[in-house]
Amino acid sequence: MSWGAENTKSAVVGTALSASLGLGAVVVFTAVRDTAILRPLIALVAPQAWPSDLVAVSLLPMAAVLAAVFLSRWWPWLLVAGVVLSLPTALVHLFPDLAAHPSLSIVALAGPPVVLLAVFAAAQDLLRRGARTAGLVVIGLAVGTQLFAASLAGASWLMLAPGGLAWHLILTAVSVAGAVLAVVTRGARARDAEWPESRPLTARFAAAAIVAVLLPMAVQAVDVVKVSEILELPVASIARHPEVVVAIGGLIVLVGGVVVCALAGSRAFFAAATSASVQVGAMAPLLLAVYSVAFQPVLSWLAAAAGVAAGCLAGASRWRAQFAVGGAVVSALVLFILDLGTGGVPEKLIDHEAVIPGALLLALLCATVVAAIVTTGPRLAEDGVVVPVLGPLASVLVFGGAGAMTAVGVRDENAPSTRLEAVHHLGYSAGLLFLAAALIAGIAAVEHLRARSKQEAVSA
After folding, report:
1. How many Å apart are CA 68 and CA 63, to the nearest integer?
2. Using an 8 Å Cβ cutoff, are 405 and 346 in contact?
């Protein structure tokens, strides 16, 4: 093996391995009780309230994410920063007294999003270097770790499983090792003559990223009083249906996100729309699947890991678009069948502890979400915009879409509010999965026609 080839191998392996290990911090943070499935971590860094004594600290996570978007060229140091910011999540289990300091909890919000952005930047470098398989797998793992973390968390009504502290400490140590490796392998990348030079963000994408990070704060402007004034309904009537406020806030963010993505360009728009559609569509069925196998944690972890691995393999193959479209269509059909087979009461899977169907559904959905998002990687890497598109732009669409989807989960006035309300409306989830399949198929068809026209022009 030549010296140059050895440098290339070291650079590719070091980059892929360090980015993958750094994701341990994301798993630790996401595997927290009472959190939403596939929560849009990057959008959630915007302050949801303004405590008078913590205003400056509340702005820190948002500032950290914005800085990460613009400093993605130095992703090894961003990975270090993200891991360090994530440490309070694990340390609070070792030192419970730290929980008395709310500022630490707020600062910890910045860690996982910064780690994700650093990992996306590493994947972009790998794809531009020509290490297509490694780059696509890293993107798949960045998405898949959030799904795997949901299987670790299990159902919100369960107490912390035995070994939870050990998991947190092990994964935190893994993330620290990844951050150290990212810095150590900088020399190998510098010696690789073909390693791509980083590109600064264009003004258009810089503006889009800034607006996307700030948009979630718009939900603070929506409350019961304002909604009652807009709809000209009594405050008491709106107060009986708080999901209306959530849906309106989500719709505002979603519309703003769509406009921002459209201004960023057609590639960015369709990539972000694909990513958001499959994530929002998978939220409710993933909740059903995770809760169905909640009392079999090992099976849950195995099913999620198998699904993520299958999604990464499918995404890294030549037929990634076909696999992604097929997975989304099959997942949507499974949801229709599940709804029909349970008589419109899908939570029967939970009540009867149907662990095998739940595990299969979990694996299928994990594979589908990962494969669908991975298909957008090569196009975005060509333009050098993996970080802003799969980061803030897609995240704000997921945030707004998830909020707006609460409107389809309207329950009877006398029925108690439950977290499983969305499970009763799997048809909407299936529709979003069909939309993701159509977007992937359409983009693949357009690219095929463009490539074919170029070949015909060259041959002529």
Report:
1. 9
2. no
Q: Report the chain's C-alpha Rg in angstroms.
A: 22
Positive or negative: CA dihedral 287, 275, 87, 119: positive
Q: Provide the Cα torsion 34, 109, 87, 158; round to 10°.
A: 0
Q: Which of 12, 28, 75, 15 is nearest to 174 (CA)?
A: 28
pLDDT of 173 over the 80 cut: yes
The predicted-structure confidence for 71-83, as pLDDT tens digits, reads as follows 998 999 999 999 9
| DSSP at 195 | P
Q: What's the whole-model pTM score?
A: 0.91
Q: Select from 249, 286, 302 the least CA-distant residue to 433.
A: 286
| For helices 297-316 and 355-374, angle between their N-to-C axes, nearest 10 degrees | 30
Distance CA 85, CA 71 (A): 16
* Each residue's pLDDT tens digit, 229-265: 676 667 666 667 777 788 888 899 999 999 999 999 8
pLDDT over 50 at 377, yes or no: yes
The helix/strand/coil state of 49 is: coil
| Cα–Cα distance for residue pair 257/322, rounded to 1 Å | 28
> Is the pLDDT reported for residue 58 higher than 90?
no
140: tokens are 């798949």
